[in-house]
Amino acid sequence: MSRDAVKFGRMSKKQREKVEDEVRFHRAQMRAQSDAAAPDSSVFEQQTPSSSDQLQHHYNGGYAYNSEVGSYTPYAYNTTQVTPGSGAGSTMGYELSADYVDSTTAYDPRPSQSMDPLGPDTSTLMTSNQLPTDPAEISELLSKTIADAHNRTCIYSLDQIHQMFKKPQTQHESLSRLLYYKNMAHEELWLECAQKLTTVIQQIIEFAKMVPGFMKLSQDDQIVLLKAGSFELAVIRMSRYLDLTGGPGGTCCVLYGETLLPQDAFFTSDTSEMKLVTCVFEIAKGVAELKLTETELALYSACVLLSPDRPGLRGVAEISRLSQAVLRALKAELDRNHALPIKGDVTVCDALLTKIPQLREVSMLHMEALGRLKRSAPHLEFPALHKELFSVDS
Description:
With 394 residues, the chain is mostly helical.
C-alpha cells in the first residue's frame, strides 16, 4: 500500500467526503470538456512572437528588462536554437522545437547537458507539412515538446538534485545553516526568498514561451497567465527539491541553494507568513509524494499555466482548447504510468486536479503576505521581475 493510500485512509470522514466531492466535480468537468471538439494539430503551428518579445539584441550575461513581463529573456534574444558549446552560429538539430514551438529563445540553463533529452530520433519526427491528425499522436507529440521545454528550463536534473541530497553534511553544518536563516532579519529573509523565487520564475517564463500555442496568444493574455500562475508553477517546481526521505532531524526538507532546510527555517513571527510557508510545503510535498515523472510534472505545469478561468483573459476559447489538449496528454501519461488508484477510485490525476484550488489559495496567501510587508516596509527594493509579476495595490 502506498504512503498516499495510508495518508488518505487516515483522513476524517468529512475530509474524505470533501476530497471525493472535488474529484467528482473535476471528473464531471473533464467529461464535459472532452465532449468538445477533438484536439487538432494547429497547436503545433509555428508561433509568432508577440510584440512583448521584440527585444534589443545584446549579450550582458543576465536578463534584459523592458518593463514588460514578456520581455525577460536570458543571455540573448535569438531567432534560432543554439546548441551550447557548438559555436554561436550552429543551429540545433532538434527540429520539433524549431517547427512547432516558439523558437525565440536560446535558453539552456544546463549547458553541459544535451539539448535533446528525447533522443536523436525526434529530430526527424516530422516536418512542417506532416502534422499529426490522430489525437493520440498529438498527445504524444505534445508530451515530448512540453517535457523538452521543462528539461531545458530546470537548472538541475533530478539526478543532480538527488546527488545533492546525498552530499555529506555534518550535524554541526546543518545546525549552523539552520540558525543562519532563523536569525536572519525579517525583511532580509523576504528579500533572500524573493531573489530565489525570481530566479525560478525566469525559468518558468522561458518554459511558458516554449509551450505550444502560448506565444500565439495575445500579449495581454500571456501576461495575465504568467502573473496569475507563476507562483503556482514555482510551488510545483519546488516539489522536485524536496527530500522526502528526511533531511537533518528526519523532517522533510527542501534543497535551498545547496543546503537542505526544514520549513521552520523560513518561519517568522508573523502567523500569516507561517501559514503561507506551511501551505507551500504541504502542497509541494503532496505533489512530490505522487512520484510524477518529469514529463508528467511538465504537463501538469502547462495545465496550471493554461488555466482559461483566470480573471482578465480575452482569448478564453483558444486557451481552453490548448488547456484541454494538454490535459488529454497529461491523462494519457498518467494512465500509462499510474494505472492503480491511490485509494478507492481516486487516481493520481484526480489528486492533481484537486491540488489546483490549493495552489490558487496559496498564491493568494503569498500576495496577501507580500502586500502587508510592502505596506509596513515600503522602502524594500525587490527584483524588477518580482515587482512586475507581484504588483500589490496599497
